[in-house]
Write a structure and sequence with these properties.
Layout (H helix, E strand, L loop, with lengths): L3 H12 L16 E3 L6 E4 L15 E3 L5 E3 L4 E3 L29 H4 L9 E4 L8 E6 L2 E7 L2 H4 L9
């Protein structure tokens, strides 16, 4: 049984914004906690380690892009109030999209940036000339599709690669 002191310490650590390199997991609970600084991250205390590129110690877990961690439902969702936690809009800023091995395809070839773009469909900047387009919603990449004829005749947006 988890003691009240353990729960109180864990809750206090989350509320006070424990450092991002210190896990609130104490090794005996299977609780979930939001990461104090990044909206796509959370602590799953039932996990004893974390991927090597992930910051924050034991149990740090990342939602799949473009999902974010919701404190209330304790799940990864598309629409979340991040509060003071940083919202990463670019898929390539997610840790699970990073690869430092020589065989990796650069992330931006697969996930173009939508920051600064209006919601809509755009020709894929790294797959031209081709019928591929990408879809932006709330400045976040949400899909890659076959371009509608109306988009194929427009200019490629200037996105940073």
């Amino acid at each position: 049984m988890i003691s009240r002191l353990t729960i109180l310490i864990s809750v206090a650590a989350v509320a006070s914004g424990f450092p991002s390199d210190v896990s609130p997991c104490n090794g005996t609970s299977a609780e979930l906690f939001p990461h104090p600084k990044e909206c796509q991250l959370y602590y799953n205390c039932s996990i004893t380690d974390s991927p090597r590129l992930m910051p924050g110690g034991q149990g740090v877990t990342e939602c799949k892009y473009p999902l974010l961690y919701d404190e209330t439902s304790e799940t990864c969702m598309e629409e979340v109030n991040c509060g003071s936690r940083k919202l990463k809009k670019n898929a390539c800023d997610y840790y699970n999209k990073k690869c430092d091995l020589p065989h990796c395809i650069p992330c931006h070839f697969l996930f173009p940036k939508c920051e600064g773009l209006a919601d809509g469909t755009y020709p894929h900047p790294t797959k031209q000339p081709s019928p591929y387009c990408f879809v932006c919603n709330n400045e976040r990449f949400v899909d890659e599709i076959s371009c509608p004829d109306s988009v194929l005749t427009t200019q490629t947006p200037s996105t940073e690669i």
